[in-house]
Amino acid sequence: MTDREILRRIDHTLLKAVSSWKEVKTLCDEAVQFKTASVCIPPSYIKRVRKEYGDNLKIATVIGFPLGYSVTAVKVCETKAAIKDGADEIDMVINIGEVKNRRFKSVLGEIRRIKKVCDKKILKVIIETCYLSEDEKIRMCGIVTEAGADYIKTSTGFGTAGATLADVELFKKHIGPKVKIKAAGGVKTRDDLEAFINAGADRIGTSSAVKLLSGGAAAGY
């Protein structure tokens, strides 16, 4: 697998609370130069990035991030605002407490409402695997599929642990044929990147891929 092939699957990510415009702009410049799948940025920067870069890059953003326990109406409002500002892709966090309460219809309904707002734009559903049992992860594979989301995503990167190969392999067994997988959190090396893609991840959310691979990509490897 070439560096360029890996970079095309990267959501080049910067979501720290202290992210400055200078840092966001550097992220976007790198995404354009190395042709990553998207940038994943805080909602407050979407409008400025869209104005600065036009259609030269895909913008992903986060909703209900990172804890997921905003009420559904707030998440819907956030999603509408993000799309109006120019977001192409939405990464939403589920209400993890509702999963623990086994109120799965509520979780399903929330995802469906946000997918309706997204319409044809990509929706990725973050289930924060570090807090879920295997049974809950399997249940969420079914719910994400039933809700019509485009991706199931492992993690926010702000929980107690990030993506694992075991979780990606579990997802692959239990999601529907139209659902793709995004791994995020703790993917730090080139070997990690390639291993997650080989395990079944279509996208990887990380801040380090461009730094790891830009030399090879720039050289045409």
Topology, element by element:
Layout: H1 3-7, E1 10-13, H2 21-34, E2 38-41, H3 46-53, E3 59-63, H4 72-85, E4 89-93, H5 96-100, H6 104-118, E5 122-126, H7 134-147, E6 151-153, H8 165-174, E7 180-184, H9 190-199, E8 203-206, H10 209-218
Parallel strand pairs: 1-2, 1-8, 2-3, 3-4, 4-5, 5-6, 6-7, 7-8
Helix pairs in contact: 4-6, 6-7, 7-8
Return residue spans where pLDDT drops below 50 for at least 5 consecutive residues: 217-221
Strand element count: 8
Q: Please state the structural category.
A: alpha/beta
Would you give the CATH topology?
A: TIM Barrel
Helix content: 40-55%
Return the CATH architecture. Answer: Alpha-Beta Barrel
Helices, by number, come to: 10
Mean pLDDT: 95
Radius of gyration: 16 Å
How does this structure look, described?
This protein is of the alpha/beta class. The chain has one domain: TIM Barrel (Alpha-Beta Barrel), CATH 3.20.20. Helix content is 48%, strand content 16%. It is built from ten helices and eight strands. It has an eight-stranded parallel barrel with strand order 1-2-3-4-5-6-7-8, surrounded by seven helices. Strand 7, helix 9 and strand 8 form a beta-alpha-beta unit. Helix 6 runs parallel beside helix 7 and helix 7 packs across helix 8. The chain starts with a helix and ends with a helix.
